[in-house]
Specification:
It comes from Autumnicola patrickiae. The chain is α/β, with parallel strands linked by helices. The protein is 53% helix and 9% strand. The chain has a 7-stranded mixed β-sheet, with helices on both faces. It starts with a strand and ends in a 22-residue tail after the last helix.
Length: 635
């Protein structure tokens, strides 16, 4: 019978995970610490490191026990087994009868765990010596424990039952590509990596990446594209982590001579959805599957679990979806933050709109900070404390990192005060605005956020204008007096920004016949991605309840916005009057007022259009669809 040895330094969770595993696979559990002789336990309790001579009797006992367990019902053994010679000593049965499960994490993470443990004879002070002693095995399953115990167990079970088709080739070892490759490997997915080799520009990238990680993972690496492709199991799954634009087409063109029918290419970059539609069509003619998969979460998300938005043929997702789901973040119920979004360009459209909402949320926080920093003279630390309090309700990742940003110091000053106020962008926000214009959907807050970045880039012009108009930052409000209304305004602005974004998704779904599940999109945005928040959790049910209705028409949202509208318009007016721009917050207020106006100003627009261009208009006293023209000037 099989013996499973769960190994690693003290504090990594060997006993906890070992017990869960034994229960799951229904074999007995044993803790190696229970087999130490009394003198060893006494030394460890007193903080005295064990020597190899102290371990001889203990290892021999365990070796004999392993031999017994293998002949009976099998076992799960939690044992540090830090050195290779210890592991060899334990190898009293054939190698294939032992499954090694190496649990690992960073020193600081384990130290925090050790410091909080009670009634355990192992002293945290000994942890450093354990890390120094540890010889990482180049075999067995390697499992990072920076997750819940349920997630760690799930990963182990998946690796034990791994299917042969769980393989992926990855092209492009930039920051995201490297993190994603490590994520694949950590989840037990066979991953082969490729990066081009260009003298004096990109030299031995793939080789160096494999060497840097060889103690934990074995990465087959290539800088020859033909050899890379031919090394992959068929049908091949290849994910591209290269810059959006011409680079994607260049890589696809280079891959094609070596691909076979039913191979799959996944574009994991931020490509424009129309380009994805085009590429899928071209590759379909050649019998090659193509998927555009938006990936959100940045470097850390790619490493630990991003939100993934794949779009393309359902047949392709049925094959590769389980692999993508393995590396994705998990929602509150433990389900992967990854789903088949829809056909052709749907995945990249959804990722584009995710980034559009992200633009709005970032600008909303930035302009709120700016008003507090200069309009109330609040110090960054004070604003951080206020944002932290707000985030008990919002649970926003962007608000969370803003707290950390505002508290970060360099020498005696805050780093935020040393950062140039000229924002950069990569285009996805602007793409969202263009898509909204094409589909005839208002996108006030997101467009305002994009344009705010544009004007921020005109730093020299702004400084000159400030002098010409005699502008100066001055205190016009008290933080304590406005904080409650400011929070109401901020929260309302955030809700309106989300409502605007999902309204564009709804229209795109209808226009492109994508049949998007907005509730499911909200669900995969609850973890791993940049715009995760408590409101996104709420949107799962809101959008499930009334999927074809604007979010602002949901009864709970109506009540909340009604209660916040006065604060929203009041704060906008106060800030503008004091000379502080509020592009997104004011756009949110204007959108709300326009959206809830039964009578708008558009009748004047229609009259003007008819006056100078005879464009006609509809009448309130006639059925919709009938058009009229007036001779506005008497002859």
């Amino acid at each position: 019978m099989q013996v499973y040895i769960v190994m690693g330094v003290s504090g990594v969770g060997k006993t906890t995970i070992g017990e869960l595993l034994s229960e799951k696979i229904n074999v007995p559990f044993y803790d190696a610490d229970d087999f130490h002789p009394p003198e060893n336990r006494k030394k460890m309790k007193e903080g005295i490191p064990l020597q190899d001579s102290d371990r001889e009797e203990w290892l021999e006992t365990l070796s004999n026990k392993i031999s017994e367990w293998e002949k009976e019902d099998g076992a799960v053994l939690a044992c540090s087994a830090l050195k290779e010679k210890y592991r060899k000593h334990l190898q009293s049965i054939p190698k294939e009868e032992i499954t090694w499960i190496f649990l690992h994490s960073e020193y600081e993470t384990i130290l925090d765990r050790m410091s909080s443990r009670e009634d355990h004879y192992f002293k945290p002070e000994l942890l450093k010596s354990q890390f120094e002693t540890l010889e990482i095995p180049n075999y067995g399953f390697h499992v990072n424990v920076d997750a819940s115990k349920e997630e760690v167990l799930d990963e182990i079970i998946w690796k034990l039952n791994k299917k042969e088709d769980a393989h992926m080739g990855l092209v492009g070892l930039g920051v995201m590509g490297k993190s994603l490759a490590l994520n694949f490997a950590s989840k037990g997915i066979d991953i082969t990596v490729f990066n081009r080799h260009v003298e004096e520009l990109e030299v031995d990238i793939a080789k160096k990446f494999a060497e840097e990680n060889k103690l934990v993972y074995e990465f087959p690496w290539f800088d020859n594209l033909e050899k890379f492709v031919k090394s992959l199991e068929r049908p091949r799954n290849i994910i591209l982590m290269v810059n959006a634009g011409p680079a994607v087409d260049m890589v696809i063109e280079s891959l094609l001579p070596f691909l076979d029918k039913d191979d799959l290419i996944i574009d994991g970059g931020n490509s424009h959805y129309k380009e994805t539609v085009r590429r899928e069509g071209l590759l379909k003619e050649k019998g090659i599957f193509f998927m555009g998969a938006g990936i959100s979460g940045g470097e850390e998300g790619a490493l630990k679990g991003p939100s993934i938005m794949p779009g393309g043929p359902k047949e392709a997702y049925d094959r590769a979806g389980k692999i993508l789901e393995r590396i994705a973040a998990k929602d509150r119920n433990g389900n992967p933050c990854c789903t088949h979004v829809g056909p052709d360009g749907a995945g990249h459209f959804v990722k584009m709109l995710h980034n559009g909402i992200e633009y709005g949320e970032m600008q909303l926080i930035a302009e709120t900070y700016h008003f507090l920093r200069f309009g109330t003279n609040a110090a960054p630390q004070e604003i951080a404390d206020l944002f932290e309090e707000w985030n008990k309700d919002m649970k926003s990742f962007l608000l969370e990192i803003s707290v950390e940003i505002l508290r970060k110091k360099e020498n005696d000053g805050f780093i935020i005060d040393q950062i140039l106020d000229a924002a950069k962008q990569k285009g996805t926000g602007g793409w969202s605005t263009n898509a909204a214009l094409e589909l005839g959907v208002p996108l006030d807050t997101i467009t305002a956020a994009v344009l705010a970045r544009n004007i921020s880039g005109k730093k020299q012009d702004r400084v000159s204008a400030m002098k010409a108009y005699n502008r100066e930052n001055k205190r016009t409000a008290d933080l304590k007096e406005i904080s409650d209304d400011l929070f109401k305004a901020y929260k309302a602005g955030s809700i309106i920004n989300h409502a605007i974004g999902f309204d564009l998704l709804l229209e795109a779904s209808k226009s492109y016949d994508w049949n998007l599940n907005l509730s499911e999109i909200a669900r995969i945005w609850t973890n791993g991605c940049i715009i995760r928040s408590s409101f996104m959790e709420d949107l799962i049910d809101i959008l499930k309840d009334k999927p074809s209705e604007n979010v602002l028409m949901h009864s709970e949202i109506i009540s909340l916005i009604k209660n916040s509208e006065s604060a929203l318009t009041g704060i906008v007016g106060q800030a503008l009057k004091a000379g502080y721009p509020m592009p997104v917050l004011s756009s949110a207020a204007n959108y709300l007022l326009s959206f809830t106006s039964g009578q708008s100003s558009a009748n004047m627009i229609q009259a003007q259009r008819d006056f100078f261009g005879a464009h006609t208009y509809e009448r309130t006293d006639k059925p919709r669809g009938e058009f009229f023209h007036t001779q506005w000037l008497d002859n």
